[in-house]
């Protein structure tokens, strides 16, 4: 990296201060190693957890903790942090979004910055995982989640929150409505330029993850909800295919009944009623989805870049 850059590391924290302290120490090592090329500041979004006191002397890396009034979840904590940085901090070059538990390795920050600079700071750089530390059950679940996500949206999502945002692109990110549901999904949906770089996922520093099965499922559904426009069109497509199959089945049954000498079994009438019922349900589901989509499009909501203020304690 040719010259000194000011980097802000943004990390949400929920009752995981032991890991956060280790993260700061890791970043401190990175800070002294790269002191001639980067200046690092850490901003932690305390997502409604109990705040732990830190001795100011435990690190030389400047850091601040932004306390929220209540727990809003990982993704919304990131959205609040990004709006906070855009509104409250001047003169920075990059924002690096990372988790506080160590799974996003601080030593990879330099790699993300180098990739961003190589692209003239015109794209957001995401860390795509090439080696994961999770259990086999999680890996299997994540594989099916990616396949399901692609089936519904025709988009590939194989990266998380760990990313490097050039300052010029931050103002485009904070006005995205879907940012409050899913950070990485909102970037894909918004058409903001981004690129990926393969990085290994680290091991958790301490404790256990606060994400349970319910949280993981809701997180996955939030990423799909970002693509409601595309999803509604694909539902219409699948409905058309389903209705076509049902109509074809009805025509086949009627053909054998009225135009051939073959006897039609007694359950054929019941089958026709079932098919018509399926057609009716598919039509109603599609109608409801399309009405919801049209209703959401008629409302024009101006972008708000200071919503975060309502959440800060």
UniProtKB/TrEMBL annotation:
Stretches that traverse the bilayer: 213-231, 238-259, 271-292
Keyword Protease: no
Positions of the Glycosyltransferase 2-like domain: 10-163
Topology within the bilayer: Multi-pass membrane protein
Cellular localization per UniProt: Membrane
Annotated GO CC locations: plasma membrane
Pfam families (UniProt xref): Glycos_transf_2 (PF00535)
GO molecular function annotations of the record: glycosyltransferase activity
Source species, domain of life: Bacteria
Keyword Transferase set for record: yes
Keywords annotated in UniProt: Glycosyltransferase, Membrane, Transferase, Transmembrane, Transmembrane helix
Protein name: Glycosyltransferase
